[in-house]
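Much of what follows relies on a compact textual record of a protein's fold. A record is reproduced here so that you can trace the correspondence yourselves:

. . .
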Amino acid sequence: MMKNLRIIRAGLLFLLLGLSGSSVVAQIENVPVRNPVYRFLERMETRGVLGRYFDAVKPLARRDVAMFLEEVKQHEQALSGTEREFLEDFRREFRFDIDRTDETYRSTISPPDSQPFSIGGSVFGPEEKYLFAASDSSHSLFVNGLLTMDARGISGDALGTGDAQYLQFGGRFRGTLFNHLGYYLEGTNAQFWGSRELLQRDPIISQSHTIYVTDTRNFDFAEGYVKYGGEIASVQVGRERLLWGTGFDQAMIASENVRVYDFIRAQARYEWFQYTFLHAWLLGERSSLQFTVQGDTTIYTEPTNADKYFAAHRFEVSFPGVIDVGFQEMVIYSNRSPDLAYLNPLIVIESAQRSRGERDNVYWAFDFETRFLAGLQLNGTILFDDLHLDEFFAPRWYNRYAYQGGIALSDPLFLPNLYLNVEYTRVEPFVFSHNRSRESTYSSLGSVLGPRIGPNAESWALRLDWLPVNRLLLSATITLERSGENVYDTAGNLVKNVGGDHRQPHRPTDPVDRVFLDGNRVNGTVVQGYISWEAVHQLWIEGGYLLEDWDRIDQGTYERNHTWELKAKLEF
């Protein structure tokens, strides 16, 4: 007992020392996961010009991204001309985070004693543009207006022929106080016209609650947090999009499949080692409760969602230029208030859940990334939902695991400015389900927290990016998916449970041995083309095309859909 207390005290001392560092003068807030700088840095890592790049858990702090860009700058002689132009654009975007200079940004609403906004010199210039910006030696505030115009259409078997348009507007506030306390707030609201069902097919828009409210024609999103960062450690409280995993197509631990959730995150990094703690607030399956008011015979319904939580620890070791190795443990628990055992950042989750009655759903995962050859990167992840070593190679249903492997190549076949990714993901039957609680599945609001393909499925994904000139990206992705779904009769009764639904655990009457891809077979082919052109700094013109083929072999049905999209995004 005393030994455990000494370990906890040592860990807390390490955290306090990290938070109290006084030499840090940088922006603490994070870079949103959809910022294109991440894809650029991944390419630089593959090329071998970026050594120790901790990116399995994103987003990263602006100060860290700035540091990585400066490391790339030191090796710019190894870059192509187009890559150097992209690098300079990103360095201009993060210039304030690099050296706190205000020479590369302009503010529409100028604070006292600052340079007024110049229409000719800023609207079409390379400077970062803000509605309002102010900074001094220890404080900063940056405010952006956000505007998106989107038009899309579909033809095919899912919806016939239809189209939709939306106008999205909002704002972003971010900054750092006293060089250590970062804050971030972003909110947007969109008014749409046309097909609601088409917008509901969008993987991100479909996560908005209001897109399903039939008497409204809008959808909205909001993210916000505060974050305290020191020289070694940081602590963050709030909500924003978070990705956890080494895959480029599907993140194994936490992906974009689910609605943005609130969490507490703490990180500590020291040279070759990084530790991450997360405790998140998820949502269970949506249902309704019927009730009557005293003296009233009317039956009312109240929407309900079970309280549900996700806790995780990650330990990562990096050997620059060779390999990064990570280990993480995760738990999903529900139907009670937050458990202090899982709020403890220095505990073994598996042992803690056993001591708490063994009610919860625990996972382990290991991953690696190699960079021993410039231009080539290999990565892999294996996740264990349940593990029986004595029967590991037997096809028992309780040997539940998922794995993923990927290859990244920069300039394949010596073709400049190309970046190629190939990734294979496989999830065995019954993974992510749980038979002790209907709400402790590895999901939020019914969507799998990790790989989108779910259990009893596999996928191959190939993505090719090309940077022909500065500020222009052309991208193509081909995805092949196969899955086996549970079999139901016409009345909706489960006839055959093959482990194809994370909400349906294994039953005592189901076979002991699993058969991969058993059940109703579904084969899918998805081809996507994407173009992004930054016509003027902070004004992007984007276009996309999506071809989907879904062949439900056992049902004898086939579906093909064509979707196109044209979008303009402005940050001002």
Notes: The chain has nine helices and 26 strands. The radius of gyration is 25 Å. The CA atoms of residues 7 and 205 lie 45 Å apart.
